[in-house]
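Pipeline run #58 for the internal structure catalog. This entry was flagged by the ingest filter as a single-chain record with no existing model, so it goes straight to prediction. Upstream metadata was stripped on purpose; only the residue string is passed forward. Reviewer on rotation: M.T. Logging verbosity set to normal.
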Amino acid sequence: MRGHVHLIAGYVPGNSFVHRTPLWLKGVLLLAVAVACFAAPGALLPTAVLATVVVVHFLAGLPASRLWTPVKLMLIFLVLITGYQLWQFGPAAAWRMLAAIIATVLASNLATATTTIAALLDGLTAAVRPLERLGADPERFALTVSLMLRSIPFIVGAFDDVRDAARARGLERNLRARTLPVVIGTVAYARQTGEALAARGLGEAGP
């Protein structure tokens, strides 16, 4: 299956100051970016934040392609919301909204690209731990997120592979040929994952 780890901003090894920043501080800064961008009355602050995020992206040693990939994935949404803002409120408001969305997305992409999956899961476990009093299981929650992060690229890759195979056979308009193999492959992947977890005694309820 072709790689689609960019969908979840796979970790890019490095030793920049961004990589060394604690996860909790990255979370605080990400929240500050979102609040600053969407609460700003004008376009100046979102534009400045967007420019800063781009500069920090390169300072972290991340490739330029990682800036375009998340934007490309939501391009249709960006076009629609920008067109609506342009029609209803004018160019300044349209750019303010566009800059705010892209800045927030790129900031989150920057945070996850400079943090290992293990560190992210440890952070999620720590964040959920106070909810243990209400019956939550932090370890089970982290395991669920880990499985989700592995499954998304697999499923998207399955769609792309099946689409290419259908096109090669002249069946690109055949809905069954484009979906049935994906369903079968996804179910098989889920069963294999479940069997692997069961063999290791993971995911089972405690006594």
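catalog note: DSSP finds nine helices and no strands in the chain.
catalog note: Residues 132-199 form one domain.
status: ready for reviewer M.T.
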